[in-house]
Amino acid sequence: MAGKFARSWALMKASAAVLRSDKALLAFPLLSGVCSLVVMASFLVPIVLVMIAHGGNVGDAAGHRWSLATYLVFFAFYLVQYFVIVFFNTALAGCALRHLRGEPGSLSDGLALARSRWASILGYALIAATVGLFLRALQERLGLIGRLVVGLLGLAWTVATFLVVPVLASQDVGPVDAVKRSVELLKRTWGENLIGNVGLGAVFGLVTFLALVLGAVLVGGAVALHSLPAIVVAVVVVVIGMVLLSLVQASLQGIYAAALYRFAENGEVGAGFDQALLENAFRQKRK
Fold it and tell me: What is this structure's pTM?
């Protein structure tokens, strides 16, 4: 386990080296987050109105089966939200791949690439929205068992589509072909090391926990001073810190996925990544 953690830490440091050399990559998760909030806000009122029109409210929705209209509204929400997220993730992956090839890249380059792939991105968002709504419906109908099933199916879907975004950024293919290619690459290269390499997420989980502890101490100290300005400043600092942490995490994950895709596709290693490190992360299954 110590070796797996060390490898994940080394991969994160290599990804951070790429991010340090091109800090503009942080703009993509920032834009994605802002647009996602706009989408969420634009759907919130219609969702509440639909629930009320069918004799319920947000609280009742958790305990009663959804109506057809509610499913349609949530499907539309999933579709738009997935499109926004995949669009900016594709832009991030495109810029990361350019950087790994030693080519210059900018925010406009990434956005231009994503715009050129909008049809495939929309198609994949449609697939993802369908899967998401299916899992939500399954969870609603099966209760506790449904939550366990949804968790397993959701994990399987996440694994199967792990490299879809880099595929969309690198190849002009349709959404179905992108999913197929993602599965092919993972089956060929991920092997038994899949669980070990999700330690990258565990590292950020630990960092986030420590940040929350430090934030709580900072806010608690401000409260102890009985000073409203100090409390406001402390809260603002904590919020900004958590936002920056989330942006860094999203950017690093995008760079990490792009580097793994590039290595899985043609065996090439990008700038800031060690050949032996990636070969260990992508250890082949024994025949």
Answer: 0.80
